[in-house]
């Protein structure tokens, strides 16, 4: 740690300016009141108060994020001269904020741009910076408060003490906001699961009815129909088990894309066709555990829609599924329904299932989905980054 950059010992040497304790007390009361009523306003107000009480020209929070390793600081709630850098990232192990976390106490830095190239490259001049770690109930530091002065020799021990007291409240506020975000996310996830379960149950009844009708038309007698139905319902159960949300529950593993597809389409096979109703063409492709779940959901939804509205709504319908890997690291999948009964008009698929299909492709996998309807059914083109399928 360069001694000409980090001059923390000078805080105690400088004469402390007259402390306005009433102002500090009012500031703490203000923050406490906002934490109870409007916690989302605490952090912006906290930064403003820290800058005002210490006489800085700019201030902000650098909140620590563990990924990507070894972590970064994200600049948040910036005020004053450097407010345009809101959302900027700084390296954990190559920044004054990182030194502050390592020290675990207030740190004073003089012209850190002389040592940190990324600060100089951003065109930032820092005559003097006071940095204070943010804690929550004795836990590991979660970030830092930093305040910039307009000139060297500005900050003293009184400024460091006041900033540290404010930082205690800021640490609590950060944790409160994070808890609120986690609770909101959990509630949204619970609502999504409930809607998805209802959607899948409705689809299951539709698919079961289709299987009974298909089996009745192609069976010679009731015994053959019963045997065939038992096999198809067992296959449907295996396909349904692939689409799960809880990874603590062990389900059937099917890490090869081709095996996954066979499991999902098997209940809908009609062996009147010499080669079956489904043509699967593509190279060997191994899926990760989490991507397996998402891909199962995608093809389960496509298959169900084909049974209800598209190419599999008639006995003559077939589906071709082709996939290939591009040189750009993309997996390209084409789902084509052919030979089914003619579709008079394009189905209006704007419900939860369509949203679930698109969200899985775009949000979970970062891919794209293009759909076009012909008279015999749907053609869907799915493009996914290959790297997002290995987890």
CATH H-level homologous superfamily name of the largest domain = GAF domain
Spatial strand arrangement across the major sheet: 3-2-1-6-5-4
CATH topology of the largest domain: Beta-Lactamase
Distance between the termini: 39 Å
Spans of 5+ residues with little confidence (pLDDT < 50)? 245-254
Q: What is the top-level CATH class of the largest domain? A: Alpha Beta
Shape: elongated
Q: Mean of residue pLDDT?
A: 79
Q: What is the CA-atom radius of gyration, in angstroms?
A: 30 Å
Helical fraction equals 40-55%
Number of domains: 2
CATH architecture of the largest domain: 2-Layer Sandwich
Number of helices: 10
Topology order in helix (H) and strand (E) letters: HHHEEEHEHEEHHHEHEEHEE
Strand segment count: 11
Strand proportion, as a percent range, falls in: 15-25%
- Structural class call reads alpha+beta
What summary fits the major beta sheet? 6 strands, antiparallel
Describe how the helices and strands are arranged.
Layout: H1 10-13, H2 21-37, H3 42-54, E1 58-65, E2 72-80, E3 89-91, H4 96-103, E4 107-109, H5 117-121, E5 128-134, E6 143-149, H6 157-218, H7 222-242, H8 257-265, E7 278-281, H9 289-308, E8 318-325, E9 330-338, H10 352-364, E10 368-374, E11 377-385
Parallel strand pairs: 7-8
Antiparallel strand pairs: 1-2, 1-6, 2-3, 4-5, 5-6, 8-9, 9-11, 10-11
Helix pairs in contact: 2-3, 2-6, 3-6, 6-7, 7-8, 8-9, 9-10
